[in-house]
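User: For my dataset I need records formatted as: sequence, then structure tokens, nothing else. Please produce one.
Assistant:
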Amino acid sequence: MYIGARGKLSATKPKKTNKPQSKKGLNVAEKKQVKRIISNNKELKYTPSWINYDHFDPANYSTTKLPPILGSIILPNVYDSANQVVSIVGLQTGQYLNSVSQQLDANLTAAGQGPCMYPLGGYGMQRGDTGTTIDGNEVYYNSGKLNIQINSVVTGSNLGAVNDTVNPLCFRILHLKCKKDPAGVSPSVAGDLFRDMQNNNAGLMSFMTQRNVFGDYRVNKQRFTVLKDIKFKLCEPVQPSYAGTVANQTTQNLPHPTQKNITLYFDKPKKKLRMETVDNGVNNAYEPLNYDFVNYVFVLCCREQINSADYSATGKRWTITTQGQTTFRDC
């Protein structure tokens, strides 16, 4: 016998009512929502360390504002080297050129050409409490991009052959990151950048043909991560008074633009970035220590037809300007 709620005897045991207990705090989904709201409301901070190459007033040139880059360096081992068929400009993120870029520059200089690599900066953040500094030693990477503009050089004043206007400039832009081998050794863009038709390594200093560089050889994906591989053509515009004769004024360009604008986006690490607290003057200027921030951009140029005495080389026939942007959030 059981005593009921009003003191009456009962033959059955009263059932227990399992009331759901209220949980304290937020559940997993709510915590994610709050974290997202907090992150979105945090101030984005823009790095001032980008080295931009553009048409600045010469009076305003500085370490971060430099003139446009002229595509004047020729790959010496691409046939026919006597006609200088392929010109190159190389860009690398980071305040200082690393060993990969330095090796390529050294090889080109030894071959009688000269350096082709240009640093971009783009990741350095000093300590402080402004829109271009960070509060502590760790930050979240938010986004990063590089805007590139390539222009063909106007043909005029007897500086080039009028035939060039009907032989367009062909471009290939490679946006890459290196993969390190198990020993931690970075690959060489001079010798490992491509795979040839026999699946052997080839690079920017290898003996190749114009067709190999722009069509036959694929990027060596065992050693490099390909973020972008772009191909396009530009024509060279002609000044109306070219060579001072009426005959040349009727020369028509092929239906290709004379300018190309491209935006390249950088990969986004999910982890916190631990930033260097000093500029060591060698390989890191307030840049990440636990993340490989180095991106390479190679701009290669040749003519649509094989270079010969009838057409000028592509060196000094095109220019490139750059503007970059990177944003971080304080942890």
